[in-house]
Amino acid sequence: MLSQMTLQAEFEAFLSGFPRNPQDPRVLSGIADDIEEHYPTLGQVLGEEIHEFFRTPFSTQRIVCGLAEEVEKAYRSSGVSIDFYYYAGEFYTGDVNACAVKVDGGFLFLLNTGLIDCIHKFSCAHIFSDALVRQADGKGHFHVDDDERIQGYSFNWLAGYFADLAIKYLNFQGFDNIYKLERPQDERLYVCRHIINVHMWIFIIMHEFAHAVLGHLAVPHVANVATPVGLLPLLSKSHKQEHEADLMATRVLLSMGCDGQVMTPEETALADLKMASIANFFFLADLLGSVSNAMQGAKGDENPQGDEGSTHPDPLLRLQFIIDALSVQYGEPCTEFYPRIATTTAWFNLIKPRIMAHLQGSL
Q1: What pLDDT was estimated at residue 227?
Q2: 359 contacts 291 by C-beta, under 8 angstroms
Q3: If you ran DSSP here, which 8-state letter would residue 237 be given?
Q4: pTM greater than 0.85 (yes/no)
Q5: Cα 312–73–51 angle (5° rounding)?
Q6: Most CB atoms closer than 10 Å: which of 49, 160, 191, 279?
Q7: How far apart are the first and last CA of the chain?
Q8: Residue 334 and residue 327 in contact, taking contact as beta carbons nearer than 8 Å
Q9: Which residues contact 111 (CB under 8 A, 6 or more apart)?
Q10: pLDDT at residue 138, rounded to an integer
Q11: How confident is the model at residue 302, as a pLDDT?
């Protein structure tokens, strides 16, 4: 079990001299060998993942490195200076979805182990279950027909899939034994799934970048969080800082790929899907928090973590903050520009109670 000082020292030694998000396998190989030789405890985790980076073309680490590069480019394109070194990757951060750690020489942007795969599977199940939601009338009422199927999947079966996904993620069980959903036969659904998936990934990394860009990590308040590899000194931000990082990440994400002030129909549709991606991230965070609390309650914990034990505001309040801020910026409700916010919210309100019902039978 690592102590706080040992882990912090190894993080700092690891980052010292680390090139900005390197893609050169020779550089990565040298770093991995150095970690395993001089910092064996940390090397057991990160060194192995770095070797996996160029052993497997589509490894998680390769995905995260590529995403971080795109995020850096997006910030630079929006006029933000990125004058720091960083490493982005998955690491055991307890039940935290992602965090930024300031160390000598730069920052570590850490996504909880399994989060990249969890988001991918969440997106796969979302696109099927969302397609089963029907608008009952023109007044914003939605419903689901329990007898309806899409490629054999019912809404209720998919709710059970979400419950299983959340349990496996929170328990660090991996997803080898979870059912593999089919590729959508409807090409439109397949494209939407891919766009939502990728932009959920990007938003998480953009949020952590925003903390560094906005100076939130300059004078950190450190909270020691228990993880599967020991105590990890995570930076504790205020709720105001979390909202600021959310809003900056949202604005940069929406600006990605838009060259002019007047958006084309394609850019407008893409922006709508980007906002759906952001909404889905917060819905996933809310779901994981609810499932985590239910799991702790089932174990007899009378004080599950909840919002009071987290440095982050309630996920749904974070989403509402973004919606309100954009509405003020646009001078009218931003849902007029991003109609998928309403439909995605309706989907979540319908499926979450079913997920929690399935969960009760699994604990």
Answers
A1: 60
A2: yes
A3: P
A4: no
A5: 80
A6: 279
A7: 28
A8: yes
A9: 64, 88, 89, 90, 91, 93, 97, 98, 204, 205
A10: 66
A11: 56
**Spatial distance between the Cα atoms of 349 and 166, rounded to a whole number of angstroms:** 17
Distance of CA 314 to the CA centre of its chain: 15
Task: State whether residue 143 is helix, strand or coil.
Answer: strand
Distance, in Å, from the CA atom of 61 to the CA atom of 51, rounded to the nearest integer, reads 10
Alpha-carbon distance of 38 to 100, in angstroms, equals 24
CA distances from 262 to 185, 256, 259, 330 (A): 33, 14, 9, 14
> Which has the closest alpha carbon to 244: 321, 308, 183, 311?
321
Residue 61 has what pLDDT? Answer: 74
Q: Which stretch of 70-74, 100-104, 212-216, 238-242 has the lowest confidence by average pLDDT? A: 100-104
Q: Residue 325: exposed, middle, or buried by beta-carbon count in 10 A (0-12, 13-18, 19+)?
A: middle
Please give the Cα distance from 354 to 237 (Å, whole number).
Answer: 33
**Closest among 284, 281, 266 to 191, alpha carbons compared:** 266
Provide the CA 342 distance to its chain's centre, in angstroms: 21
Quick check: 99 and 208 in contact, CB under 8 A? yes
Asked if 17 and 38 touch (Cβ cutoff 8 Å), the reply is: no
Does the pLDDT of residue 217 top 60, yes or no? yes
Question: Quick one: tokens of 7?
Answer: 């882990």
Whether the CA torsion 346, 347, 353, 356 is positive or negative: it is negative
Quick one: average pLDDT of 117-133? 95
pLDDT at 95: 53
DSSP assigned state of 150:
B
Return the structure tokens found at 195: 């766009």
